[in-house]
Amino acid sequence: MAAEARRSARERAVGTPLHDLLGVWMIVWSYAPAVAALWLFGRHPSVVTFLFALAMVTVRMNALFVVVHESWHYNLFRSRRVNEIIGAVFASWPCVMPYDHSRTSHWNHHRYVGTARDPDAYAWKWDDDERGAFLWQLFLTATGLAYVVRLARLALGIAPPPGRPGLAPRPAVSRATAIREIPRLAAVHLVILAIFWKTIGVYWYFPLWFFPALSLFPALTGLREFLEHRRGALIVYRAWPHERFVFGCFNFHLHAFHHAYAAAPWFTLPSVGERALRKAPNIVSLGSYLGELFAYFAGRSRVPARALSVDAEPRAAGDLPLAQRSPLEADPAPGAPANG
Fold it and tell me: How many domains does the chain have?
């Protein structure tokens, strides 16, 4: 009875002023630990406090990814326009993420999740015999070299390389999108630069914000995406709080439930679990992110092997305004399998 009451309370908050307050809370709690770590470094500069600040900024950028993710689905705030503005200005652009391109790519991820048409397949489709290549890709991303190469290709007008055999290529940012968003992104970073200048020193902006945004943050999100969709599955992690803080903040450890109900705001995910399992019965439940990562490298992954579908029908992506999404959100598109 208590669980039913909690579920009702969570879902009753959707579309109310509390919904907006929870959106504000997401943004505040995303920044607060990073700001505290940067303040600590400014007051007590040392190698230890520098590394702590670097790690905390990286981890909270992953939290900002969840914030912008909610805005892509119009779940962050009640207003569609407020979702777009706040999601871009306070979450996407500070992490050097193009908003419109990333949103379109993410919607397609929902429509084709777990199939060869999934634009995120490059992140999760690493077989047991590709462990070395997976580590090499993580290294290139974490050092920023992968970003430098993509930026050079965009600047020179060079087409992105073909995707890995059998997979959709990683979506590339168009020049038109770059021209439209880069000035706005740059304006946001000028504000961040000014904040560093007024607090711990302008030069620390580069190693403690700009560098992790281009390297450690994409490496962490890539690792999270790999674990969320191992072998193309939909996975929830019953993780301990410290793993949730790093990988699965704001109920993102229940990511598979989100795929079943993409229009359910983050604060309702714990209450939709039973319905999500009925809608997508192949959801896999694991105990630990790091446990599955170690199992992958040991050749003992706990995610069942499955054939990679090529011709899956698109599914509902939750990419509709709050007042218009109910019919599409209720069920996948006709003919679509429950788990993509």
Answer: 1
